[in-house]
Design goal:
This protein is an alpha+beta fold. It starts with 7 loop residues before the first helix and ends in a 23-residue tail after the last helix. The protein is 55% helix and 11% strand. It is built from 14 helices and seven strands. A five-stranded antiparallel beta sheet has the order 4-3-7-6-5. Strands 1-2 form a two-stranded antiparallel ribbon.
């Protein structure tokens, strides 16, 4: 059949007809064979255009979302043969792909734990293993930043090019993934004991669904969305996405490389320039580079969580006590802690928001070092809660101080570390 069909639109029309029959409940195996025959001369762009035209022909978004899963499953054998697009390190698509690798890693780790649950005797305690699964699902919730960069940075370019349909459908699938993960985690948070038989049932009906929804979206991205996006977006448009991505944050991966396309120096300057003025505050003002230096020099680490419980900033000190990477920016603070301590985090935030407390203090021993950790509620002049500031300090040396050393007794000390950039 494909030898006769040389016209691309004719091929797409036949594919649409087959997809409609598939949606109406026709025999999947038979239609799969026919689609595979058609796809011998098709590629990802044909699949993309087919979705665009189905939407333009009036199929509602809910039906398209169902079709999307069905025809992707049917076409997967053919799409598997197509290589995932390659881009230079630092390019937004390269970052998306690296994030997908990290997401896949968490999915596989969760499945390994599910296999351990399968091996338990029927009445055995499965709670420790289910907490491990919960931890991996918490990490997978970081996919929200991956999706928000697509929704708010990539999809608008499709709309500008008058092809809003497929991104809108994919946005709906994003929401399904988010909901699957949220409900599955919520179910795990509500248990304090679970036997192996119950755990296996939950894994089969809830956890497996959540993991598969993450995997399915990765597949759609790498086999259809990203190759199409590379075809239709210019280097300047990709650079705009690159420049604006840190504001939303990254998913389980902190990009290691800078990227800029050739021949866009003027465009680059328009995005990277900052005001030469000072940031005016009630008690003074800073140049931006001065403010960065101040936060880099503070003798303690700070992390800021906004009023929506989202991590927005951490200080870039040279000798941080707890490691931080930009991958945590934009992430809910609850997902930055082990499942067993989330209830404590939530209680602190609840007390801060209600005004019951203004700080929460902790101190721990890390080898020979004493670490002091304080959470402070941030409030404005009207006492409205703005967020939480975590301050972490190594107080070992402070605790060891004795007597006095006054200003007149100043003596130069051996430098503790290089003053180079951090």
């Amino acid at each position: 059949m494909s030898e006769v069909i040389n016209n691309r639109q004719e091929r797409i029309d036949i594919m649409k007809s087959l997809i409609r029959r598939l949606h109406e409940g026709s025999e999947e195996k038979k239609i799969r064979r026919q689609l595979e025959t058609m796809l011998d001369e098709a590629d990802y762009s044909d699949v993309f255009l087919m979705e665009v035209q189905l939407i333009e022909e009036g199929i509602d978004q809910e039906s398209i979302q169902e079709l999307c899963d069905t025809h992707t499953r049917v076409l997967s054998g053919h799409l598997d043969l197509q290589e995932t697009p390659e881009t230079n390190p630092g390019h937004p698509v390269h970052t998306f792909l690296q994030e997908n690798k990290e997401l896949n890693l968490r999915v596989q780790k969760a499945r390994l734990v599910m296999e351990e649950v399968q091996k338990l005797e029927e009445g055995a305690d499965a709670l420790p293993l289910m907490r491990d699964i919960q931890g991996f699902l918490n990490e997978l919730m970081d996919v929200d930043k991956h999706y928000r960069r697509k929704e708010n940075l990539l999809f608008p370019f499709f709309e500008k090019k008058d092809i809003p349909g497929p991104p809108a459908v994919m946005w709906g699938k994003h929401d399904e993934v988010r909901e699957n993960l949220r409900l599955t985690i919520q179910g795990l948070q509500e248990i304090d004991r679970v036997k192996a038989g119950e755990a296996r049932a939950y894994n089969f009906f809830a956890v497996q669904t959540a993991l598969e929804s993450v995997e399915d979206m990765i597949y759609k991205e790498e086999k259809i969305l990203f190759p199409t996006s590379l075809d239709i977006l210019s280097d300047q448009e990709w650079y705009q996405i690159y420049q604006e991505s840190p504001e939303i944050g990254f998913c389980l991966y902190d990009p290691e490389f800078d990227w800029a396309p050739e021949g866009v120096e003027e465009f680059k300057e328009s995005f990277s320039s900052t005001s030469s003025g000072r940031l005016q505050m009630p008690t003074g003002a800073f140049q931006l580079e001065e403010l960065i230096a101040v936060f880099s020099t503070l003798p303690f680490d700070i992390t800021f969580v906004d009023q929506e419980d989202t991590v927005r900033y951490f200080s870039p000190g040279k000798d941080r006590i707890f490691d931080r990477s930009r991958a945590i920016l934009g992430r809910k603070v609850q997902y930055c802690h082990p499942p067993k301590s989330v209830h404590t985090v939530n209680q602190i935030l609840k007390d801060f928001k209600s005004g019951a407390q203004d700080r929460a203090r902790f101190w721990i021993q890390m080898g020979p070092r004493k670490i002091y950790i304080v959470y402070y509620a941030l409030r404005d002049e009207e006492d409205t809660y703005l967020g939480t500031l975590e301050v972490t300090q190594d107080i070992t040396e402070i605790q060891a101080l004795e007597g006095e050393r006054r200003l007149l007794e100043y003596e130069a000390e051996e430098p503790q570390a290089s003053h180079g950039g951090s």
